[in-house]
Amino acid sequence: MNAILDKLPTILTLAVLVGIFLALQKHSESSRTRLWTFAWALIFVHFLIQVFETHTGTIEQIVESIDLASLELSGVVFVVSMLRSVENRFRRTALLSLLAVPAAFHATAITFGWPVRGALVAALAVLTVGSVAFVFLEEGTESAFARTLAGIVVVTGAWAIHNQWLGTPDFAVNAILTLSFGVCGPLFWKRVQRWSPGVAAVAGGFVAWGAVFPVGALVQHFYPALVVNGELWNVPKFFVAIGMVLTALEDQSLLVEQARAREHSENLMLHRLSQISSRLIAGRDPATLCDEIVDGITSTSSFRGAVVFFSAEDRLPKLMCSSGITSEQRARMEERTRGFDWDNFEKLFATNRLGNSSIVLDAGQLAKFRQVATNQVSEGCVVLIPLVSARGAHLGILWLSTPLAPADLDESEVAKLEMLAADLGVTMDNSRLHRQLIRSEKLAALGQLVGGVAHELNNPLTGILGYSELLASEAENETTRARLGKIGHEARRMHNIVNGLLRFARQSNPGTRVADLAGSIRDVLQLREYHLRKFGIQLNLNLEGGLPQLAVSDDDLKQVLLNILNNAIDAVENSETREICISAARQGGRVAIHIEDTGAGFRDLNRAFDPFYSTKPVGKGTGLGLSVCYGIIQQAGGEMTLANGQQHGASVVIEIPAVAVPSLARDTVAVPV
Predict the structure, then answer these.
(1) Residue partners of 529: CB distance under 8 A and separation at least 6
(2) Residues 360 and 448 occupy one common structural domain
(3) Which CATH number characterizes residue 321's domain?
(4) Is there a single domain that holds both residue 581 and residue 649?
(5) What are the respective helix, strand and coil percentages of the chain, to the nearest 5?
(6) CB count, 10 Å around CB of 224?
(7) Which of 19, 197, 204, 673 has its CA 20 to 30 A from that of 190?
């Protein structure tokens, strides 16, 4: 009865602790909290079962085996709870099975006195080797902490195996208890690593708890007559229990503080992004806000790097601004964008989708997708958000890097940046449409003007041509005839200019527009075959098979192709590399025609479509070619864009709507060059 009364305070205290941990588990669900609750339940069983000790017979052996096994198993459970991979169900279960089974067998076997020395040695060997293996698996073989801990386990385990083989299991029991409880102290500190009363109580309490067993054995060996109050040996475990409760409360406080900090950061981010979005919606040019956008992202979000790419006329992303990356990383990005492929991007979007309009790439995927994301990172991930117009056209990419893993990304944060990207895409699209509208209105007004002027000029030019030819036929002086011929030549040149003005101002009937691209290209190339051969120009032609007919008249299409081909020939005839590439492919309901050359490129892209603007020598060009082509393509409902190459050359992209009737399939078109 006295024994029960002596142990009752400890039993009741442990029962309260188990209840407290059950409550903590309910409010903060985690594998670590569940293991702590289970371990303290085993400690409770360890003390409770001692009440039933009889000191004789089989019942006493059963009680002692439960007593020792529950104590050893509690140490094993505490060790597993301190590991970093405790949330990994497979590793947690594997380690518990590997350590708990031999520990329970060892406690039961030595309590009942089973003559299984080999099995007991094997159990200790499994405990030693399994502990070392998981230490290295958790920390890595290069970790000094792991090597030190593994060395202690190996030395202690080897000595315990030696004593067990000699038939003295007491040292093995003390070794298991000392290591299991003592190791929890440094493991817990390494996992939490913060100075606080709760952490200090847990780490120090476990070290003292582990020291209780060898100290108790030494006191009993050297001072057998010394009487020590049993509750003194229980002090470390209560320090651990109180420290765990304090640590749980500290964790909750940290979570609250982090939530407040995150809320403040999100409010700041939302305010900053809303200011940028309001200016974008108000019509500000996105290029003028680019630096403010990336600085706002890196200063108010978890993303440490931000880059904005705008699609150039050749659809390749062009790096416009960046924040949080080095100049070397920026240079690598600019280099890698030359091989960018939107089709590859769409495939990634289909398989790595993060939010409504974003994709996430971890470090392994970044090694494969290097066109935009080029800085190599060992941890973290990259988020790519496309800038898309209301019509679905890709206008650029918002590139974001963070040290967080994909699973740790804040979805609400990404959603806000997706909204910013959507506003940015709409503003860019509106800006482009505005420029096209201004250009179209200017060309329409100019077309009406030059149409009337051209008709008025045709009448006097006809008279000049007629009278110059009449006078030349009547003149007897050779000098006079030569001068009259020059007048006629200049008049004919003026007539050609007037005809160009008329073509520029002409409105065609859209109901009669049907053209076959392959046939038109073949006819145009036959007209320029001699010049291609003369200047040694290499022509590469690649037309996708089965292209549909185009919603433009055959004559207009030939005029457009001939004008652009003439410009390309003029551009490359004095170049070191003389090459022209023509390709065509279907893109949705349109056919995209790409014409690229290796010439000097456009001198001024902003003025290339202006009427009478020309960089050719006097007398070689009228300056109406591209403006006439632009008008024809616009009337057909298409689009025409110009761009210069990264180093040299120019490219013209023509997109023309397709009609429903398909043309004959052609993989390639033979070019007689």
Answers:
(1) 672, 673
(2) no
(3) 3.30.450.40
(4) yes
(5) 65, 10, 25
(6) 7
(7) 19
* φ, ψ for residue 477, nearest 5 deg: -80, 130
Structure tokens that stand for 193 in this block = 């690593």
Is 656 in a helix, a strand, or coil? strand
* Paired residues of 595 in beta bridges: 582, 652
CA 184 to chain centre: 38
Task: Please compute the mean of the pLDDT values over residues 506-534 and round it to a whole number.
Answer: 74
Contacts of 330 (CB under 8 A, 6+ apart): 307, 319, 322
Single-letter amino acid code for the residue at 632: I
The DSSP bridge partners found for residue 643 are: 651
| Confidence bin at 374 (pLDDT 50/70/90) | very low
Secondary structure element (H or E) that encloses residue 394, with its range: strand 394-402
Which neighbouring-strand residues pair with 644?
650
Three-class secondary structure of residue 128 per DSSP: helix
Which one is predicted more confidently, 165 or 335?
Answer: 165
Q: Tell me what pLDDT residue 407 has.
A: 75
Count of domains for the chain: 4
| C-alpha dihedral, 372 to 374 to 379 to 384, nearest 10° | -10
Task: Output the 3-class SS for 560-618.
Answer: HHHHHHHHHHHHHCCCCCCEEEEEEEEECCEEEEEEEECCCCCCCHHHCCCCCCCCCCC
Q: Which amino acid is at 543?
A: L
For residues 160 and 200, membership in a common domain is answered with: yes
**Residue that the structure tokens 């979805």 belong to:** 411
Considering the domain architecture, whether residues 517 and 655 belong to the same structural domain is answered as: yes
Residue 188 exposed, middle or buried by CB count within 10 Å (0-12, 13-18, 19+): buried
Q: Which helix (H) or strand (E) holds 224?
A: none
Last residue of a domain, one of 428, 454, 481: 428
**Could you tell me the residue range of the domain that residue 377 belongs to?**
284-428
- What is the 3-class SS of 179-223, one letter each residue? HHHHHHHHHHHHHHCCCCHHHHHHHHHHHHHHHHHHHHHHHHHHC
Q: Are residues 121 and 138 in the same domain?
A: yes
pLDDT value at residue 369 = 47
- Is there a domain that residue 499 lies in? no
Backbone angles phi and psi of 39, in degrees to 5 = -65, -45
**Taking the CA of residue 12 as centre, how many other CA atoms within 13 Å lie in the half-sphere pointing to its CB?**
6
Instruction: Identify whether residues 21 and 85 lie together within a single domain.
Output: yes
- Does one domain contain both 356 and 469? no
pTM of the model: 0.49
Outline where DSSP puts E strands in 449-578.
Answer: 538-543, 548-550
Same domain, 465 and 577: no
In the three-class reduction of DSSP (H, G, I as helix; E, B as strand; rest coil), residue 395 is classed as: strand
Over its C-alpha atoms, the chain yields an Rg (Å, rounded) of 42
For strands 579-587 and 538-543, give the pairing: parallel
- φ, ψ of residue 354 in degrees (nearest 5): -105, -60
The pair of structure tokens assigned to 622 is 């009228």
CA–CA distance, 293 with 286 (Å, rounded to integer): 9
CA distance 10 to 123: 32
Candidates 384, 386, 658, 425; CA nearest to 547 is 658
